């Protein structure tokens, strides 16, 4: 299964409370912070709520690199 590397690129200041909550649920909170999550519909839905605040790129899971 592929993974997604999600990086926060813009500040959450001035965004709506639900968008800030989505960033928190993704494990983000500061500009430049990154997290790797599995490529699942739930995560894709969260990303679709804050596309203007994050950057998404594919990431290989540790099992795929071995």
Please supply descriptive tags for the structure shown above.
66 residues, alpha+beta, Ribosomal Protein L30, Chain: A, three-stranded antiparallel sheet, 3 helices, 3 strands, elongated
- Write the CATH homologous superfamily: Ribosomal protein L30/L7
Amount of helix: 25-40%
Q: Which radius of gyration do the C-alpha atoms yield? A: 12 Å
The helix-and-strand class reads alpha+beta
Catalogue the unreliable spans: none
General description of the model:
It is a single chain. This protein is an alpha+beta fold and 66 residues long. The protein has one domain (3-65): Ribosomal protein L30/L7 (Ribosomal Protein L30, Chain: A). It is 33% helix and 26% strand. It has helices at 17-25, 41-49, 62-65; strands spanning 3-8, 34-38, 54-59. A three-stranded antiparallel β-sheet has the order 2-1-3, with no helix packed on it. The chain is elongated. It starts with a strand and ends with a helix. The model has no long low-confidence stretch (mean pLDDT 93).
